[in-house]
Specification:
Layout lengths: L2 H6 L7 H21 L3 H51 L14 H41 L19 H39 L3 H8 L16 H39 L3 H4 L3 H4 L17 H39 L6 H14 L4 H47 L10 H16 L1 H19 L4 E2 L2 E2 H40 L28 H5 L5 H8 L20
Length: 572
């Protein structure tokens, strides 16, 4: 190959300066060969070698360019494949950028790189979201299961092949359910803890010790660690709460029983109110429901022990005071019978009590209870007799007024001037009105008594005598008295008639005779005698209050039974 051909075969892509440089170097090489005296053969060989070396250089350059192109194509394909993989893992639709036919590989890569970066960023964000959801799920699940192992956020491994939004939403939904369950468990735990605390306060128990026995997290909670909400912890809390409620119920029942016993002993022995105030907090519980008991320490062991000691002390005193109470009940019973005009043999009843007490063969509480029953029965009798007794009092008052009126009308000086005349006139006027009502009073009272006796099946005794008989005697006596008054009036009328006839025959006499009913004494004070009383009230058993009390202590009309024997209502 000639030098010219070499020069002519230089690449067209070479710049003019590069061609000039190769030509100058070739000329310089020929000049050197001329000076050396190289033959044409050697010159052609060296030029051929030089041309071969140039071809090798071009070939290597082309190969490298080809490889670079292949790398670009592979990178472009890898980017497209990665975008497809990311879109598939994320569950998204693939959206490739559109390339212009005139764009080269580098331009295409520069266009697709932002899309690849977008999907990569979206993948990392999705991985973080899924990892966080799985971490929270694992942590809450560990709390619920009671696993004390610490969950490491870095230990969470996310399946990068499944990063779809459905998976994330499923995890978030599951996480929300776990969070709701955790919140409910926290509420239940806190509610149980609050209830246990209230019960501990009421019964003076060590709340911290109870909580520590259930789970240490309720006392010493480490940083970042919450209260245990596991099934086992909830079961322990529920069991402890039920045990405390049962214990509270038992203590309340025990104190209520002790409180009722205190009431009985206080009432039995008439304990002063000041002394009762010391155990007011106990007696208050006797009428309380278990849900109403929440005062601090009101069901403590100390309160129960103090109440038991007090009950024991009062029981010791009960025997010594029982005798006094029994005789007090006897006096109360006698007083009730006295008020309602029922006569009892008090001396005999007291002797029976003394005999029973000295024998020691009877329970004093039963004896006292029997006396209370008799007092209740006597009060019931008093209530049933009250209406009749009220009417008896009105009848007695009317009878007394009638007696007074009779004596007042027999007094010839009742109209004489003197002190008290005006008052006596007014009283006489009222007495006449009241006396006119006596028949209706007796009739109504008799009807009441008959109805009472029919209902009770026994006679109505009033001051040792049947009241009906007394009323009948009173009615008969009053009729006799009216008959006597009538005969007296007729006799007076005959005497007046006889005197008139004699006066007509013999003329009037100068001497004025004293009227038949003229009093033999003169009383300027015109006071009605109070020393005398109508025979009815004295003879028919209608005596005053003092006479009634005196008569109640004599005779033996109604024996009193203090032991557990059948009681006969006929004693009234």
């Amino acid at each position: 190959m000639s030098v010219r051909s070499i020069g002519d075969s230089s690449p067209l892509s070479l710049s003019k300066s590069a061609t000039t440089t190769c030509s100058s170097l070739l000329r310089e090489l020929q000049e050197i060969w001329n000076e050396i005296g190289e033959c044409d053969t050697d010159r052609d060989k060296m030029l051929l070698q030089l041309e071969q070396e140039c071809l090798d250089i071009y070939r290597r350059k082309v190969e490298r360019s080809r490889n670079y192109k292949a790398d670009l194509l592979q990178s472009l394909a890898a980017s497209e494949a990665e975008i497809a993989g990311l879109a598939s893992a994320l569950g998204e639709q693939i959206s490739y950028p559109r390339f212009d036919k005139m764009e080269n590989l580098k331009q295409q890569i520069s266009v697709i790189s932002p899309t690849l970066d977008f999907w990569r960023l979206k993948k990392q964000e999705r991985i973080k979201e899924i990892a966080e959801a799985e971490f929270q799920i694992a942590r809450i699940s560990a709390e619920i299961s009671g696993d004390d192992q610490i969950i490491d956020r870095e230990g969470i491994r996310v399946d990068e092949l499944d990063l779809t939004i459905n998976k994330l939403r499923g995890l978030e939904s599951h996480l929300q359910e776990l969070q709701c369950e955790r919140n409910l468990r926290y509420q239940k735990v806190n509610s149980h803890i609050s209830a246990i605390h209230d019960l501990s306060v009421v019964m003076s128990l060590d709340f911290k010790k109870i909580m520590a026995d259930i789970h240490p997290s309720f006392i010493d909670t480490a940083i970042g660690q919450s209260k245990s909400i596991s099934n086992e912890t909830l079961a322990r809390l529920t069991n402890e709460l039920n045990l405390l409620k049962k214990e509270k119920q038992q203590r309340l029942l025990k104190l209520q029983k002790l409180g009722r016993t205190l009431f009985e002993l206080w009432n039995l022995m008439d304990t002063p109110v000041e002394e009762q105030q010391k155990f007011k907090h106990v007696t208050y519980l006797t009428a309380s429901d278990i849900e109403e008991v929440f005062s601090q320490g009101c069901l403590s062991f100390d309160v129960i022990e103090q109440t038991e000691v007090e009950v024991e002390r009062l029981n010791d005193l009960k025997a010594s005071k029982m005798r006094e109470l029994i005789f007090k009940r006897q006096s109360e019973l006698e007083e009730i019978y006295d008020v309602i005009h029922m006569d009892v043999d008090s001396e005999k009843a007291r002797q029976i009590l003394i005999t029973l007490l000295e024998s020691g063969n009877i329970d004093l509480a039963d004896l006292l209870s029997s006396m209370d029953d008799q007092i209740a029965k006597a009060k019931e009798q008093a209530r049933s007799r009250k209406d009749i007794l009220d009417k008896v009092e009105k009848w007695k008052h009317a009878a007394d007024e009638e007696s007074w009126l009779d004596e007042y009308e027999r007094d010839e000086n009742r109209y004489s001037a003197g002190r008290g005349v005006h008052k006596n006139l007014k009283r006489a006027e009222k007495a006449r009105i009241l006396v006119s009502k006596i028949p209706s009073l007796v009739e109504n009272l008799t009807a009441k008594v008959r109805a009472w006796e029919l209902e009770k099946g026994m006679p109505f005794i009033y001051n040792k005598a049947p009241l009906l008989r007394t009323l009948e005697e009173f009615t008969i006596f009053r009729q006799e008295k009216e008959e006597e008054k009538r005969r007296s009036r007729e006799q007076r009328k005959l005497q007046e008639q006889l005197a008139t006839e004699q006066e007509a025959l013999f003329g009037s006499k100068s001497a004025v005779k004293k009227p038949l009913a003229q009093s033999t004494y003169s009383n300027t004070m015109v006071a009605t005698p109070n020393g005398r009383r109508l025979r009815t009230t004295a003879n028919l058993g209608i005596s005053g209050g003092k006479d009634r009390r005196d008569s109640g202590k004599t005779g033996s009309v109604i024996p009193i039974n203090y032991v557990a024997l059948p009681k006969d209502d006929r004693c009234s």
